[in-house]
Structures are given as structure tokens and as C-alpha cells.
Amino acid sequence: MPPFPNLISESLLVTETLKYLKSTGGRAPAVRVVDRVMNIKRPEPVIARLLVQDLTERDSRLVLQGDHLELVEIDADGLEISSVDYVVFDLETTGAKAPPCRITEIGAYRVRKGVVAEEFHTLVNPQTPIPPFITSLTGISDDMVRSAPLFGDIANDLLEFIGDAVLVAHNARFDMGFLNYCLLYT
């Protein structure tokens, strides 16, 4: 299981695997998953298991039980907001799509029992110029991020701050897309 199960993959392969498992009732042999999702016909069982095992290491919604891949349902509706920490976060970026755009600022608050318990904030050096339009939108300039840490330098601190908290964002698809990309490729 990934060390931070609340950060889930948005990869096409994981998405298609989840769709396939949902269509089979949540469980399927690794060989069949590799055949149907990865389009590798008649894979060797050992190879299929290794391929599927790689998926389970990237996404906590998948678990390998023997030679079968299973979908783990997360009961988010059963969570009581008063009993879990959640992290409200926002990113500023150099543009609308990762890649090629990069993160320039991260702000996050950990809320515990309805009260802000901790905060995390940093500018991030995107290693690319910030377009004038983005500077006018966010107020973040090249000068401001020039001496800021790189994402790779603060990634572990951010992940420690998030821990296993529920993540909350205004534009979650956008922010999670950037966060996932930067965590995987930085």
C-alpha cells in the first residue's frame, strides 16, 4: 500500500483497472486484468502478478490477494468530519496543465475538530519562467520564487504534513493533478 493512501493515482492504467474491476464485481484474476486492461494476451501468470502488484503499490484502492486483484472500497460517506483531520490546500502554478506547467506556491491548513491546528506554506521554484498573465493573476513573480526551494526539496515535508488526512481543495482535480504529477516525476 502506498505510504499516503489519500493520494490516489489518476493514471489511465489505474483508472481503466478500476473500471474493469467494478464491472467484475470488484475482483478478477491478475491474468485477466493484464489481458483486458493492459491488452497483453495470454500473459504468463508470474508476469501478470508482477504487473498487477506494481499497480497495488501505486494505489491504495487496489490489493493483490493471491493471484486475484481486488478493489478496496473506501467508505468516505461513513467518515464523521468531527473525527478526522482534513487538510485544506491550494496550489498556484505557472499555468493550467501539468506538464509543462509547474507549482509556484503551496498553502495548506490542517483542521482538527473544526479548528485550524497547523499550517504549511511555501513558495516553490518552478525552474521555468512565470508568464506575465499568471503573475498578474497570482501576484507571484520570478523574483519571488528565484531563491525558493524546488518541489523535490519540500515534497517530504508536505507529505508528512498531509499524513493520512482527508484532502480538501476548491478545484481538487486541478490541484491533485499537479500534486500527483510533481510527486511522481520530481
What is the overall shape?
Answer: globular
Class by helix and strand content?
Answer: alpha+beta
Number of strands: 7
The run of helices and strands is HEHHEEEEEHHHEH
Rg from alpha-carbon coordinates: 19 Å
Number of helices: 7
Low-confidence regions: none
Distance between the termini: 21 Å
Instruction: Give average pLDDT, whole number.
Output: 89
β content, as a range?
15-25%
Q: Helix share of residues? A: 25-40%
Detailed description of the structure:
This protein is of the alpha+beta class and 186 residues long. The protein has seven helices and seven strands, in the order αβααβββββαααβα. The chain has helices spanning 12-23, 30-37, 45-58, 132-138, 142-145, 151-162, 172-185; strands at residues 27-29, 62-65, 68-71, 86-93, 103-112, 115-123, 166-168. The strands form two sheets. It has a four-stranded mixed β-sheet. β5 and β6 (115-123) form a beta hairpin. The longest helix is centred in the N-terminal third of the chain and has 14 residues, at 45-58. The chain starts with 11 loop residues before the first helix and ends with a helix.
